[in-house]
TrEMBL record, chains A, B:
Transmembrane segments: none annotated. The keyword Lyase applies. The lineage of its organism: Bacteria, Pseudomonadati, Pseudomonadota, Betaproteobacteria, Burkholderiales. NCBIfam families: PRK05463.1. Belongs to the D-glutamate cyclase family. Keywords: Lyase. GO terms for molecular function: lyase activity. InterPro entries: D-Glu_cyclase, Putative_hydro-lyase, UPF0317. This is Putative hydro-lyase C0Z19_14025. Its EC number is 4.2.1.-. It comes from Trinickia soli. It holds the Pfam family D-Glu_cyclase.
Amino acid sequence: METSSFHNLTPAELRAAIRRGDWRKPTAGLAPRYVQVNLAILPAAHAADFQRFCQRNPKPCPLIAVSEVGDPRMTMLGADLDIRTDVPRYRVFQHGEEVAQPNNVLDHWRDDLVTFAIGCSFTFEHSLIEHGIGIRHIEQGRNVPMFRTGVQTTPAGKFSGPMVMTMRPMKAADAIRAIQITSRFPGVHGAPVHIGDPSLIGISDLSKPEYGDAVDVREGEIPVFWGCGVTPQAALLQAKPEFCITHAPGFMLITDLLNSDYAVI
Amino acid sequence: METSSFHNLTPAELRAAIRRGDWRKPTAGLAPRYVQVNLAILPAAHAADFQRFCQRNPKPCPLIAVSEVGDPRMTMLGADLDIRTDVPRYRVFQHGEEVAQPNNVLDHWRDDLVTFAIGCSFTFEHSLIEHGIGIRHIEQGRNVPMFRTGVQTTPAGKFSGPMVMTMRPMKAADAIRAIQITSRFPGVHGAPVHIGDPSLIGISDLSKPEYGDAVDVREGEIPVFWGCGVTPQAALLQAKPEFCITHAPGFMLITDLLNSDYAVI
């Protein structure tokens, strides 16, 4: 199949294609009306602490769903969905060190694993674009710039660390409208956490993001910063549990949930 | 002190008064600009399941904060706050049976307890009143009517059961405005879950609420139903853990959080 033909598929069809190994690329732009999620999969012994960490940091860690212990299905995200096979690329860690980047985790699955599905900015970006607000990294064909900031998360148990934020430069009028629009999505990062001077949140150079790609910031534009789903991954890897699995950045899980279901007004 | 003099106290002053035993009545109307919360206190062995239950049922179970295991302080709710002493009346349960209604739980505290602070409708009622929308049960000096409905919660582990809803009758224009206003507060029950015909959610008689008091529903008014914080308590008691503590209905924990902090727009 040509890449373009994948863009008309439903979430269930896309998951089936990914499960068969027919799609092994990043998922940006696929099924754009539907919620895509970050994954953190870890042993039940750490699950209560990690869920408390997410609850305390809802802007970077908006929790969409939590699985039952050991259950690779999450029917609330999709009737057919299988956490072990439906993401195009995973990362497997032991004691905080990456040991594999497989296309499924059937061989790595354990009966004590709990899956956390965490919201992703694709949801609110879709709404910003529908409202006519340009997203620079999409226009430039790049990954969103992500910065490890000086803002600390609220710790829970062994989980802590800096808040990672995405940045999108905008004209002032668009920034104001973007604040209004993303405020409608508190369950998926919600309103920005900072606007303007990057040095106030410990960022010294906007052209050097820690993750993703730099984008152009033009004359008269204001940088707008949102909590980023890399934050819980960073907290997870910093805590170095003996075992955990995440999706690979950009290779998200596509769910049956509509973005519009996450708009509170 | 006269009752009226309590109405000018700060949350910290009110908690201190409650701690000393100077206030042993329900907390409705005290520190009205501040968030009051429902409490569920249970052994750590049940905490992951209970938190997953709250995550899956955010309308009746909006989680404001979760304590560390065994820690009776929750500084995110108030620097001085002590979960064991700062509620005017508690209920202590063993295997789902109430064994005491003490004014503090110093003698019942255990090192394995986790406290869940769950949002309460006082927050959005304050906002409705500020917008000029009359709240019938307040006008009639009664407790809000609460109904055990035919709508089921999404289970998690051993926790399940019917959704309990509060009902407020309103004229249509006020109901529309109330939907807009409470949508701003997704972290504190949020928008209604039902409007209109009570039989559609398994309620046969609006004059016979399972909890609280009946209120007058007048000609041309529409009943408006919100998820109720009694839902997680009911799920907790149905699961019959060997031990748990809750606040007594109406005797809430007063926090330092502003209601307005929970408005997303």
